């Protein structure tokens, strides 16, 4: 079991399971190591249960992404072809509606992000794993990235843009999370 302790200005000890299954303890500055150790010991049951849950979630997540194997050249080429038949038409449609002009679109086999937009260069990256989502969820990601050409951050203004061009963005986001069992960045 890997335990990572962070000392900070807090009044009590707390813990959570990190992304890689490590136990992350947050402790008030100056807490003796012994106290931290005891805290971890006392919560061993909770930790074990949480670790099992995390492992299960990882497994399900892996199963999800394994549905689209992208190891051979052939697989990558096929995925790129499918992306090319779905993404550009959506980008075109919404660019016109939203009055934006992206200059470049790329695809990557990224599992941490569905898409990524650089508002300065106006380049947008889309994850090839979007192919595992229903079309309306793909559409949501396209509109989301294009909306960043209008508002770079995730402020209220950004979501107002989403309300205008893709009113079901909340549902789409929840559905995407449910299907992929992950919290991805957009
Ligand atoms: Zn975003």
UniProtKB/TrEMBL annotation:
Domain of life: Bacteria
InterPro entries: UTP_pyrophosphatase-like, YgjP-like_metallopeptidase
Pfam family, one: YgjP-like
PANTHER family hit by this protein: UNCHARACTERIZED PROTEIN YGJP, UTP PYROPHOSPHATASE
Protein name, UniProt field: M48 family metallopeptidase
UniProt organism field: Candidatus Amulumruptor caecigallinarius
High-level lineage: Bacteria, Pseudomonadati, Bacteroidota, Bacteroidia, Bacteroidales
